[in-house]
Amino acid sequence: xxxxxxxxxxxxxxxxxxxxxxxxxxTCVTGLVVTPTxxxxxxxGQVVILILIQIGGLxxxxxxxxxxxxxxxxMGIGDRxxxxxxxxxxxxSGLVRFVKRVVAGTLIIEGIGALLYMTVFIPExxxxxxxxxxxxxxxxxCNAGIDIIAENSLCDYALNPVINIVTCxxxxxxxxxxxxxxxxxRVLKNARTKKVKFFRDLxxxxxxxxxxxxxxxxxxxxFIFAFxxxxxxxxxxxxxxxxxxxxxxQSVTTRTAGFATVPQESLTNASAIVCxxxxxxxxxxxxxxxxxxxxxFAVIIVAAxxxxxxxxxTEVFGRRLTKQAVSKAVAVTCMSFIIMFASTVLLSATTDAxxxxxxxxxxxxxxxVGLTRNLxxxxxxxxxxxxxxxxxxxRVGPISLAVAFKRSKDNQNIIRNPIEEISxx
Length: 425
Known about the structure:
mainly alpha; 16 helices
């Protein structure tokens, strides 16, 4: 559809590879683009891109299940099991209700975000601001980072408080995960009828996701603030509060959102390396963000600490984690690292670019972030194909691995091989 002349702004069909790249980055909610979205695509093309972003953000399986429910068709046990695995849920109970709430909650939040954006974009763009607001809201909530405002992303709005606050809120709400949404609402609802301690009454998953998200956002912002403080290409000439605002947005957008209020190629090397780690970690499970996920990263850290302390159990917030959870965290992290490493080597072999720019590109593609140090547009055919494969594997790989882990529980071999000691470390 994107390779049709009607999808192009100038009425001439885009090369198929560019259309494929754009379709992939939209469906995988990555945000890397080979041509500026605002000037390259017609309204029809932008509608196609927006639909792909929405499908990619919610997940294909969730969308299909939602349509099944909407058409009043009965979901079979196989469909329910597939949806349970895709959403990483522990039980089939209330699965249909969960999907309904996910779709309804998504549309409500995106609608509110669009209305808030309109307070800025309608005065600036007129009636066109309605479409820009809706597109930007969906893209931000789905952590896609694709916009139809300008070729430099949100750099023109770096100091606009409404754009900063609304975009950050949408990114965080989409990336924190649907499970956390309903858990927080459950605790708040219970607070009306009885005395509850908010954080204590949350599930362990929500505690880890919220804590890890807050730590990564504010620690990341602090590092970026320090490393960019005297950088004349980014925030040196801003006031103290403006520097804090831009640094916080940069930390939030690395949670796989992909919007930029400062040119990424202008960041210091130290800031870029911090952003690489934040991008690789990404958002939280069962949300719209990519990356290895905050909970996965937290499990890896606490498991390492337990190993260093020679403790048999991995514990966090007074609860013991299962060995299955630790194994899955290690597997997801290793898979994402392998995808990123292979993509980096291949892109380095086919592209004449700075090593940091290449790593930034491949980590961004693997974690479906969408931030680039101005490299994407200059990629040749081989480079585009490598990034297409990286975006796809980065989005689908960890999910498939998580499903495989859940499926393997019932397929464990009864006969086990003998143990032999090895030296590690």
